[in-house]
Every structure is written in structure tokens, then in C-alpha cells.
Specification:
The protein is an alpha/beta fold and 130 residues long.
Length: 130
């Protein structure tokens, strides 16, 4: 078995500066570390229990199967905050049939991002014996 010490999602945007402005500025993700120099330098952002690295440059659109899923404490508050920062909301918060509250946005290259809230009464919050 491989013992994984850390992991991250690697994102190669078509316009790295625009993507850094989106993830660091509009979404307000905290920077874990930066490396390299110039426009294609790397920036690694905290994503709760993981990381998102924006580095390099893609020649074309992102992979169509890539999606980012980010759990937040309060999707309604995130909706208001992001709308105020000029983030395009593809779908406002909706409680899904499976019980999660989801809101959809996209990064500047069109990478879909789902912001998710796990309500207090959802089974994901159940911890046996606690």
C-alpha cells in the first residue's frame, strides 16, 4: 500500500494571472506557498483538507471531466460574498434531493466548481458513538 503524505489538485490554466486573481482574489483562498517566477509561477492554495496548485499554462481548455468540490460552512453566505466580488453564479444555492445544499460557479477557464454545505441534519454529520 502506498502511504500518501499529502495531495493536491494541479490546475494548468490558459491565463495563470487571471486564474490567480480568481482563486486568490475573488474566491479568497489562502496561499499555502508560491514557487518560481514570472507569469507561469506556481501558487498553491489551501482547500480545507487539501490543496489546489495553479501553475504553468495550458494551451487549450481544461479537461471536460475536471470538477472541483469545495465544502463550505454556509453556502448562502458564500453566495452573497462571491456575488459581491463579481463571481458569476451559474446556479444559486439549492437543497438537493440527497440533502446537500449546492451552488455552482466556474473559474475563468470554465472549470466547474461546486460549493457544498452539509446541513446539520444530514447523515454525513452522523458520528456513531459520539
Amino acid at each position: 500500500m502506498v502511504h500518501v503524505l499529502s495531495s493536491r489538485v494541479l490546475l494548468r490554466p490558459t491565463d495563470p494571472e487571471r486564474s490567480r486573481a480568481f482563486y486568490g482574489g475573488q474566491l479568497g483562498l489562502a496561499v499555502h506557498r508560491e514557487f518560481g517566477t514570472g507569469p507561469e509561477r506556481g501558487t498553491v492554495y489551501f482547500l480545507g483538507g487539501g490543496y489546489l496548485e495553479v501553475s504553468g499554462r495550458a494551451e487549450g481548455p481544461v479537461e471536460p471531466g475536471l470538477r472541483l468540490w469545495m465544502q463550505v460552512e454556509d453556502v448562502a453566505a458564500a453566495h452573497e460574498e462571491l456575488r459581491g466580488r463579481g463571481v458569476e453564479i451559474l446556479r444559486p444555492p439549492v437543497r438537493e434531493p440527497w440533502g446537500l445544499v449546492e451552488m455552482w460557479i466556474a473559474d475563468p477557464d470554465g472549470t466547474p466548481i461546486v460549493l457544498v454545505e452539509v446541513p446539520a441534519d444530514h447523515p454525513l454529520r452522523y458520528r456513531p458513538g459520539i
